[in-house]
Design a protein that fits this description.
- This protein is an alpha+beta fold and 152 residues long.
- The chain has a single domain, classed as Nucleic acid-binding proteins (OB fold (Dihydrolipoamide Acetyltransferase, E2P), Beta Barrel).
- The protein contains two helices and seven strands; from the N terminus they run αββββαβββ.
- It has a five-stranded mixed beta barrel with strand order 2-3-4-6-5.
- A hairpin with a 2-residue loop joins strand 3 and strand 4.
- The radius of gyration is 18 Å and the shape is globular.
- The N and C termini lie far apart (38 Å).
């Protein structure tokens, strides 16, 4: 009987571990939904203030960090991409806190990463993708992951 209880404990622990996160197949919430995604991290120079590229002589440039996901991610309510609402996104801009070590971030450029945080619709000119992830964690990985995390 003790072997049966041990086996049931393993099954329960495995089931409970899977229950805390749901796959992204039904769509991610771009209004502060907590997610965890993986993809290849790239930096891209983008136009900044005051006019975001309308006047290259006076506009600044900044580095935007993007995660390119392996499979498109469904977005609840769609995402506005170049004036067209599309149901999925294949890249997500990362809003990375200043506390992150920039040297370590540069070492991850071009590599597969796992990012977690809250997903938001881009609502200002400074964003280069229709949704962005307000990053909580960013680590190297070798797994393809997209899961919705429980709210904390």
């Amino acid at each position: 009987m003790s072997c049966f209880r041990a086996a049931m404990s393993v099954i329960f622990v495995t089931f409970a571990g899977n229950a805390v996160a749901a796959p992204c197949g039904n769509g991610v919430d771009p209004n502060g939904g907590a997610i965890e995604i993986s993809g290849v991290l790239h930096q891209r120079k983008s136009w900044g203030p005051p006019n975001y590229g309308e006047n290259p002589k006076t506009d600044s440039k900044y580095v935007a960090w993007l995660v390119f996901v392996s499979l498109p991610i469904p977005v609840q309510g769609g995402a506005d991409i170049d004036g067209k609402v599309q149901s999925t996104v294949s890249k997500i801009q990362l809003n990375i806190p200043m506390a992150f070590d920039r040297k370590s971030l540069n070492l991850l450029d071009g590599k597969m990463v796992l990012a977690s945080g809250k997903l938001w619709k881009a609502d200002t000119a400074g964003y280069v993708t229709p949704v962005f992830l307000s990053v909580k964690t960013l680590t190297p990985t070798d797994k393809t992951i997209c899961r919705i995390l429980p709210e904390n």
